[in-house]
């Protein structure tokens, strides 16, 4: 992990501000969820993405399907949108 030289203080409530430059780079927006975990002696912050989130619609559902060894997750609606786009490209 590369250090980027930004230091922040922890406030009285245990909060730390993530600098805007990092939030923009990692596409972390207001109200986004952040996953927090520990790896050895490091605290890792990562933008939270549910496992079965459709890459087209953003829907999370047990009805979503996993394709290409889990590299592509699609909801029924996402499949329909993708099929329509593929069909329009083939015409």
Automatic annotation (TrEMBL):
Residues 5-50 form the SpoVT-AbrB domain. InterPro entries: AbrB_C, B_subtilis_Trans_State_Reg, SpoVT-AbrB_dom, SpoVT-AbrB_sf. Keywords: DNA-binding. Pfam families: AbrB_C, MazE_antitoxin. One of its GO terms (molecular function) is DNA binding. PROSITE patterns: SPOVT_ABRB. Coiled coil: none annotated. This is Transition state regulator Abh. It comes from Oceanobacillus arenosus.
């Amino acid at each position: 992990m590369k250090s980027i030289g930004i230091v922040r203080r922890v406030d009285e409530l245990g909060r730390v501000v993530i600098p805007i430059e990092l939030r923009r780079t990692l596409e972390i927006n207001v109200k986004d969820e952040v996953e927090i975990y520990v790896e050895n002696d490091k605290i890792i912050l990562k933008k939270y993405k549910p496992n079965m989130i459709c890459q087209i619609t953003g829907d999370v559902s047990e009805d979503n399907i996993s394709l290409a060894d889990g590299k592509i997750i699609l909801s029924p609606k996402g499949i329909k949108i993708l099929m329509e786009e593929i069909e329009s490209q083939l015409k």
